[in-house]
Amino acid sequence: MKKIILVALVILASASFSTIEAKKDKKNKKKGQTEQPVQLKNSSDSLSYVAGMSVTNGLIPYLMQSQGVDTAYMADFIEGFKEAVKAGDNPQQKARMAGIDIAGQLTQRMLPGVKKEFTDTPDSILTELFYRGFTDALANDTTVMKLQAAEELFKAKQAYNKSAKEEKLYGPNREAGRKFLTENKLKDGVITTPSGLQYKVLKQGDGEVPQRTDKVKVHYEGRLVDGTVFDSSAKHGSEPASFRADQVIKGWTEALTLMPVGSKWQLYIPFELAYGERNAGQIKPYSALIFDVELVGIEK
Q1: Which of 125, 170, 243, 249 is catalytic?
Q2: Among this protein's residues, is 170 annotated catalytic?
Q3: Which of 30, 82, 169, 266 has its CB 3.0 to 4.6 Å from that of 200, i.e. a possible disulfide?
Q4: What distance in Å separates the CA atoms of residue 45 and residue 37, rounded to the nearest whole number?
Q5: DSSP class of 196
Q6: What is the distance between the alpha carbons of residues 150 and 156, in angstroms, rounded to a whole number?
């Protein structure tokens, strides 16, 4: 009797174990794991398997950060990967997979970039019409307009909106600089060159005047027209700064090639001779700048 009970328990346990394993297999299959167990019969088998595992190093962080993949859906990623691998050289499947890939790049990178470009402008990018224009162009659908006309209109709108955006953000800064220079050139001792550079001699030296390609040594302090100091040679140590006269902003190059060694000048530089439309840290686009420059020497 005990033997019969024991046999029954063994059969029941085996059935339970089989049921559990079947559930595990079904669950693993849903997760995208291989159905058949891996068999590494020789060195090439082992090399191939570990090579496949090794190239995944860093992939999951990349998928999360660059592709926006939620790791809770890795099984779906694996299924998609398998479909792409299975497609092989099938031209229809390759085209479909390429469409999915480009859609990801367009959605996550290109579209946000274009939207950002038109932020704070009179126009804005509407997602659905952006996608429609994209697919119509690929399908050669000229119902609305031809591709060349679309490209020309886009460039025109880019230029218009860029100008409007800059005017909104930096117009006041440009006008403040122009107002300052207009008033400053009327002050005693201020000299204006044909380029628009203004300077005032604080101390006149009697040394050599640098050529454009000479390497000069200078002490300096740079300020915005509102008095904000954005840089100085003192911030970088007690020694004077050293550089070629033609490797700085145009206003500096012009002034340095007029100054005798031993001079100290105050420069008033319009934005066209400074950083122009560029944003340079504390220096906003279209900024007029003021510099105190002392020419210490020329390195021969």
Answers
A1: 249
A2: no
A3: 266
A4: 13
A5: S
A6: 10
In the annotation, is 188 catalytic?
A: no
- Catalytic position from the list 199, 268, 275, 286: 275
Given a contact cutoff of 8 angstroms between Cβ atoms, the answer to whether 198 and 190 are in contact is yes
How confident is the model over 124-153, as pLDDT tens digits? 999 999 999 999 999 999 999 999 999 999
Is 286 labeled as catalytic in the residue annotation? no
Give the relative orientation of helices 91-105 and 74-87 as an angle to the nearest 10 degrees.
140
Helix (H) or strand (E) holding 228: none
Helices (H) and strands (E) in the chain, counts: 9, 7
Q: What whole-number distance in Å separates Cα of residue 233 and Cα of residue 293?
A: 10
Two tokens, residue 50: 């570990």
Is 118 considered catalytic here? no
State yes or no: is 154 an active-site residue.
no
Exactly one of 180, 231, 268, 283 is catalytic; name it.
231
Q: Is 291 a catalytic residue?
A: yes
Are the C-beta atoms of residues 262 and 207 closer than 8 Å to each other? yes
Q: Return the structure tokens found at 114.
A: 């274009």
Which candidate in 180, 199, 220, 286 is catalytic? 220
Orientation angle between helical segments 147-184 and 127-138, nearest 10 degrees: 130
User: What separation, in Å, do the N-terminal and C-terminal C-alpha atoms of the chain show?
Assistant: 111
